[in-house]
Each structure stands twice: as C-alpha cells, then as structure tokens.
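So, can you check this one?
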Amino acid sequence: MKLQELKNLLFVSAAFFLVASCATTSNTASSAEEADNTIITDITEEIEQDTSSGSKVRKEPKPISVQNTSNQQETEFKELLKKIDIKVVSSPKTTMVDKAFSVPYIINVSDENGGIADLDITVTWPVGRSNNTLTYSSTQIKTDVSGNAIFSAAVPKFAVKDVVSFYPSPVSSSSNIVKAAYEAAVTAQYAVKSNYINYPGGVLYVYDFNEKGKAGSNNFTMLQTLRNSGVNVGNSPISDTSYFEKPVYDLYKATYDIVGKAYKFMVIGSFKYAEPSIETEEGTTVKLTADITCVDMNNGNVIYKTIFSESVTDKNKWNAEQKCRKILAEKAADAIVYGM
C-alpha cells in the first residue's frame, strides 16, 4: 500500500472514532441528565447488553411510580373519618359575661378498637359579635391515650348563644378535605347571658300593632316571657306611642326623667304585621316582624339591635296572630338575654 493511501485510511478511521465518541458522550450526558431528573429509578434496568455487532447499547433507566404523599394523606384522612366516632362527653352550662365556665368541654374520639390517641382536633368558638354577626377563633387540641380531648374556654367578654365545634384537623387545605372534616364535626352549646339582666333588670317599651298599623298596648306576652327567663322587668311609664317616630334617645330621656337609674336597661320595640294576612282553604297565615332595640339606662347608648320575622298559619286569623306573637316574644326574650 502506498504511503499516501495509508495516511488517508488513518485519517478516515480517526474521524470515525471521533464522531462515535462524541455520539456516545452525547448519549451518556443525555442519559445522565434524564437520570438526574428522576427522583427514584429502577437500577436493575440500568445495564449494558452486547449485540451481535459487538457494540454496546445502553438501556434507559426505568422510572418507578412514586405515589403523591399529599394525596395519600388525604385518602387516609377520608378513610379515618369513615371509621371514627366523635362524641361530646361533657360541656359547661350557661354562664354570664365576665364569669368563667364552670367546667371544660370534653370530647372523645374512638373507632371499633376503642379510643384513638394523638389525633389533632380543631376547636372553633365565638370570640366577638356585632349585633347578630359573630366572629370565631380556632385552636387545636390532641386526644389522649383514651381518645379524650379537653378544651377550656376563656372567660367570655360578651353575651352570646351559639356553639363550640369539634372536628378532626384537615390534613390539607383542599376544599373537599375541609368539607369532609366539617361534616364530621360535633357541637356543644356555648351560652353566655348578658350581665345587664342582673338585678334590678330592665324596663319594657314594646308595643303590639294591628294589621292596620295602629299601636295597641305594651306587649304583655313579651313582658311575661322575659320574667319567665329570670329577668326582672317592668312596663315603661311612657304610654305615648308617638315616640316610635322619634329618635331612640328621646324615649330614653323621657323614661329616665321618670325612673332614673332604677333599671339597668330599656327595651324599645314593636311587633308589626310584615304583610297583610292571607286566607286560604288551609286557614289564615299571619306574618309578623319584631324590631327590638336595647338601651343602656346609665347613658342612653344602644347596646343591642335585632329584627326578625315569623309566620304562622292557623284555622283563623286570631289564633294565627296570637301564636305568632308568642313565638316572636320567646325569640325576642332569648335574643335580649343572650344579645345585650
């Protein structure tokens, strides 16, 4: 072979080797990069096999399917909710503003095997109010070895009648998980009476109006219902219903000039027809609205307001009206005791 042909052959061989090396390096780098992006791989597939031509072919790593941890927790949480039973073991009775509850709230969480220990429970309870709008706070408690969990409420600073809720703490903020946790909740009464109802109690100026809008007399049913609730209350010495057209302070001042500080609070309000009565074959339907305002007799400040309606159907108008007034009176008295 001539010298020049030998040189050409060597040059071609070198070029081929260089290209093959680059290709192998590129494939290796690509495989390495992909391997770096795989958190867990099946290393048993990461082998080299001989081919008939004698060259080596690298088989790509086979990724192992990794379950999403968050989804797994959510699945386990849903399964837990199906198995557990949450019960209120004990809860405090009604207290008053600035007076601590007599005992704590105790709940128990169990399944078919008994009490569940170390389970996080979320507790929510009312911490503020603006008339009939409540705000809430929450905290977490944990079950003990018997599945019991204890919540001691702070000394209440406002009157309210609501509930304390207990439910398993959601494992994520996913809406379906939170909803499932809420649906598993149990509740216990959270009742705090106003300290305004303490002796000497209050004075009442709540009038019944007929269907034509004319004021009748001070609401005796309301007066009696408040007294049955343990509140000392008397009729306002003002019989002039024209005060309903004046500012609240005017009636307060006129009453204060007569009774002074003989009472702690004053209730101003009315029971009126919300709409004309409706007569059908089933009877007569009466819908009334209670409009209640509570005033501090010490300074004339409005301390609570509420307005709500009730509807009753009975065989005749008189029966329907009397039953509706009774329901309104009971609700209004409850709202005053737990709202002022």
